[in-house]
Specification:
Elements (H helix, E strand, L loop, with lengths): L2 H28 L19 E6 L4 E6 H12 L6 H18 L17 E2 L11 H7 L5 H13 L4 E5 L2 E2 L4 E2 L9 H4 L23 E6 H8 L16 E6 L5 E6 L2 E4 H8 L6 E5 L3 E6 L8 E2 H9 L4 H8 L4 E4 L3
Parallel strand pairs: 1-3, 6-13
Antiparallel strand pairs: 1-2, 4-5, 4-14, 7-12, 8-9, 9-10, 11-12
Helix pairs in contact: 2-3, 2-5, 3-5, 3-9, 3-10
The protein binds zinc ion (ZN) (2 copies).
Protein name: Stage II sporulation protein D
Organism: Dethiobacter alkaliphilus AHT 1
Length: 334
């Protein structure tokens, strides 16, 4: 008999309190706020380095520490959803590029916005950069703080580190997607650099820019190519005239013949807005279909490849040492 109240209490517990707890638990989970952004200053073993950044959106020069500036560069240059090791590789690449250009390190600075500016935020001139606010506005709301923490972690865990060849800062060029093989520097520009050699890249296979198709009608094709040739680049029947391409060792088009005239692969890419110069085509009577591999010039680090290589278990140093030949990652000496 004395046990009855206890049983009733236990039953009550089970019936009322337990479900209430479960519901509360669920509700807490559903409305759980995103993590707080960790804005602790990023310390660098290379010491605090500041630079003058021309913000082309605000039209003003801003003084930033190198590491805080790099958070905005990595955010602007690489998808934040990429693996942390890929983001760290991007941080080292961006730091190397930035220091190379800084006046205090003997660089040429940004020659567009006055004599004391190290770099500008215009990607077409120097290097892309966005403010924390711009990043958070661009990312999905529930992902934003997590993305920002991940990027700050990538910069913090590589703070002060740069990529060197023979103890000198490299020209740390990169591109979005190589399409399977990166390119020798002299096949895109003029100088052959020992650390910018083409390498096989199976790591970007099967991602966004691996293979894309671009279809143009004969009229569109003629109109877009006309600025690059003296004659209308279609036959009397309207068939697009495109012939015999010379290619680099990686398969990118160096030059091809349009209506009998030589046009560079780069001009074709610009004229048609193709993602890269790595393309083949098929012309029918009234249209031309381009099949394109990759996105960008193809030299140096392949960003999608960096993500793929990170997901295959490699760290940022292994990624950098793979895409740049005979290069080491080391702390910047002041
Ligand atoms: Zn600039
Ligand atoms: Zn690649």
């Amino acid at each position: 008999m004395r046990k009855l109240p206890l049983v009733i209490i236990l039953l009550l517990l089970l019936i009322i309190i337990l479900p209430a707890l479960v519901v509360r638990g669920c509700r807490n989970e559903a409305t759980e706020p995103p993590p707080a952004v960790d804005r602790a200053p990023i310390e660098s073993p290379a010491g605090e380095i500041t630079l003058q950044v021309f913000n082309h959106h605000l039209d003003e020069v801003q003084t930033m520490t190198l590491e805080e500036y790099l958070v905005g560069v990595v955010a602007a240059e690489m998808p934040a959803s990429f693996d942390i090791e890929a983001l760290k590789a991007q941080a080292v690449v961006a730091r190397t590029y930035t220091v190379n250009q800084m006046l205090s390190f003997g660089g040429k600075g940004c020659d567009k916005h006055g004599q004391t500016v190290d770099i500008c935020t215009n990607f077409a001139h120097c290097q892309a950069w966005e403010s924390e606010e711009e990043s958070l506005n661009r990312w999905p709301q529930d992902e934003g703080p997590g993305y920002l923490n991940k990027i700050r972690q990538a910069v913090r865990e590589t703070a002060g580190e740069v990529a060197l060849h023979n103890n000198e800062l490299i020209d740390a060029v990169f591109h979005a997607h190589c399409g399977g093989q990166t390119e020798n520097s002299e096949d895109v520009w003029t100088t052959a650099l020992a650390y910018l050699r083409g390498v096989d890249c199976p790591y970007c296979e099967g991602t966004r820019w691996s293979e894309t198709e671009h279809v143009f009608s004969s009229e569109q094709f003629a109109q877009k190519l006309l600025p690059y040739v003296s004659a209308v680049p279609v036959s009397s029947t309207g068939r697009p005239l495109l012939d015999a391409a010379t290619r680099t060792s990686s398969g990118r088009v160096l030059q091809l013949s349009v209506a009998g005239e030589a046009v560079s692969g780069r001009d074709i890419r610009t004229a048609l807005g193709l993602p890269s110069t790595n393309f083949t085509w098929q012309a029918t009577e009234d249209q031309i279909i381009f099949t394109n591999k990759g996105y960008g010039h193809g030299v140096g680090l392949c960003q999608y490849g960096a993500d793929g290589k990170a997901k295959a278990g490699n760290n940022y140093k292994e990624i950098i040492e793979y895409f740049y030949t005979d290069v080491t990652v080391d702390t910047l000496s002041p």
